[in-house]
């Protein structure tokens, strides 16, 4: 058993103690939450900001580099980094400069910027696909890819993997239950049963994928190269390449969503492993944290897009918004791709992430716990499992929200931020060895409390 009853009991007590500690340390945040709550439910402009599960929201005064400073004056070493949105640090200097300069010359005009050709060249050079489109979010990019794939193949079904996450794309809100695809019951306001047109498969199971593709009715496989929004699941050797080969055999297109796995390297998991998908999606980090996203595609897909457009009924396609590809987004992307997402930055990030992962493993071993730590480039995650996970079902079984919450609150009250959704950490170019060593030390202290070696 990865989580013993004794650890869970201590976690519950630790949560109560850390909530009280948080409330005592953050009087200004408490006051701001009460004031904001008059117009924003829970005191936040987006309900996800309540996922930290503090007694009231933590309000930020400044975020710069790898440091977040709250309104009560506490400075935090930030390993959450906006859940990848600020993966290269908060307000990277080249991006901040580009945004400030472009803001004086227009934000959005529904016309191409003079930077368009330059950004296209940078995207192609980084990620290896010749054609690109810009959207406002990764969710928008994935929705566009799903529509294009259905239009090109004249097929209706989409295949995703159990435990996946692709933003707000409705087609991905399915799971495996008893060997069958079911719509996730958490989805609000859904009218039609998504499971009629989406199929869920177990990650890392090529035989299962092959059987589903053989039916000849799947337009697109939409997947992350590694499952990252549950307990992290890495692909087995050869799985993604086998998936691509099986899809081509059965006339199905493949999209790799690298919004999270861009932590792998400057070209993402795709370039690092010499993969050749039909589509490629990248969201949050591509413009250094400015809300925008891109999707790339092959020359064959681009030719099929033109065929579809030449034959479709005139009118709105359901793809794109008037804010997509705006001048501000292009300026930020140019700066991020050219000056921030460098090989030198990734070398620093990956080296420190390795140091972090090794340090966390050492603390887990010292505590005698049957847990693992998974790393993919600049991203490392604690998993409550004695061995690396293989699929979404194993990931779901490994999650323990009580113990997660206890660790997260303990770290937060000691000036370290990790992603509140699970035990994920990110290392930025601005992260220091002292930041990493501090997280490892505080994590060890948390384990000592959970294991009964130290007082709460």
UniProtKB/TrEMBL annotation:
Cofactor(s) the protein requires to work: pyridoxal 5'-phosphate
Keywords from the named record: Aminotransferase, Pyridoxal phosphate, Transferase
Transmembrane segments: none
Gene Ontology MF terms in the entry: pyridoxal phosphate binding; transaminase activity
InterPro entries named among the record's database cross-references: Aminotrans_3, PyrdxlP-dep_Trfase, PyrdxlP-dep_Trfase_major, PyrdxlP-dep_Trfase_small
Signal peptide limits: none
Classification via Pfam families: Aminotran_3
NCBIfam families with a match to the protein in the record: PRK07046.1 (NF005453)
PANTHER family, per the entry: GLUTAMATE-1-SEMIALDEHYDE 2,1-AMINOMUTASE (PTHR43713), GLUTAMATE-1-SEMIALDEHYDE 2,1-AMINOMUTASE 1, CHLOROPLASTIC-RELATED (PTHR43713:SF3)
Family note: Belongs to the class-III pyridoxal-phosphate-dependent aminotransferase family.
Protein name: Aminotransferase class III-fold pyridoxal phosphate-dependent enzyme
Organism: Parvibaculum sedimenti
Lineage, broadest ranks: Bacteria, Pseudomonadati, Pseudomonadota, Alphaproteobacteria, Hyphomicrobiales
């Amino acid at each position: 058993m990865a989580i013993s009853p004794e650890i869970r009991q201590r976690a519950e007590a630790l949560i109560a103690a850390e909530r009280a500690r948080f409330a005592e340390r953050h009087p200004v945040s408490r006051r701001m939450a009460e004031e904001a709550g008059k117009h924003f439910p829970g005191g936040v402009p987006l309900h996800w900001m309540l996922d930290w599960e503090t007694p009231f929201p933590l309000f930020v005064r400044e975020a710069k580099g790898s440091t977040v400073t709250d309104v009560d004056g506490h400075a935090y070493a930030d390993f959450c980094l906006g859940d990848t949105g600020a993966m290269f640090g908060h307000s990277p200097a080249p991006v901040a400069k580009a945004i400030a300069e472009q803001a004086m010359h227009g934000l959005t005009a529904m016309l191409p910027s003079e930077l368009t050709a330059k950004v296209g060249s940078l995207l192609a050079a980084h990620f290896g696909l010749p054609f690109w489109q810009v959207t406002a979010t990764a969710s928008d990019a994935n929705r566009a890819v799903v529509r294009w794939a259905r239009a090109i193949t004249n097929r209706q079904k989409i295949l995703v993997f159990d435990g996946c996450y692709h933003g707000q794309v409705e087609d991905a809100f399915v799971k495996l239950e008893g060997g069958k695809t079911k719509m996730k019951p958490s989805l609000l306001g859904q009218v039609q049963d998504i499971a009629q047109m989406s199929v869920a498969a177990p990650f890392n199971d090529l035989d299962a994928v092959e059987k589903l593709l053989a039916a000849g009715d799947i337009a697109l496989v939409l997947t992350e190269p590694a499952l990252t929004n549950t307990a992290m699941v890495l692909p087995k050797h050869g799985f993604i390449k086998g998936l691509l080969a099986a899809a081509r055999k059965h006339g199905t297109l493949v999209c790799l969503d690298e919004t999270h796995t861009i932590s792998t390297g400057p070209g993402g998991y795709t370039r690092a492993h010499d993969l050749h998908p039909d589509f490629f999606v990248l969201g949050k980090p591509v413009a250094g944290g400015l809300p925008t996203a891109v999707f790339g595609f092959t020359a064959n897909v681009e030719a099929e897009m033109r065929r579809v457009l030449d034959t479709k009924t005139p009118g709105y396609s359901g793809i794109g918004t008037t804010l997509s590809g705006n001048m501000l987004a292009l300026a930020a992307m140019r700066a991020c791709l050219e000056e921030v997402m460098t090989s030198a930055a990734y070398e620093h990030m990956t080296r420190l992430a390795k140091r972090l992962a090794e340090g966390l493993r050492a603390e887990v071993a010292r505590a005698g716990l049957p847990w693992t730590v998974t790393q993919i480039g600049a991203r490392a995650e604690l998993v409550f499992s004695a061995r690396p996970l293989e699929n979404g079902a194993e990931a779901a079984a490994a999650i323990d929200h009580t113990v997660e919450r206890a660790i997260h609150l303990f770290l937060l009250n000691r000036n370290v931020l990790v992603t509140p959704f699970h035990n994920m950490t990110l290392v930025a170019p601005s992260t220091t060895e002292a930041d990493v060593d501090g997280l490892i030390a505080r994590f060890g202290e948390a384990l000592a409390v959970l294991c009964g070696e130290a007082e709460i």
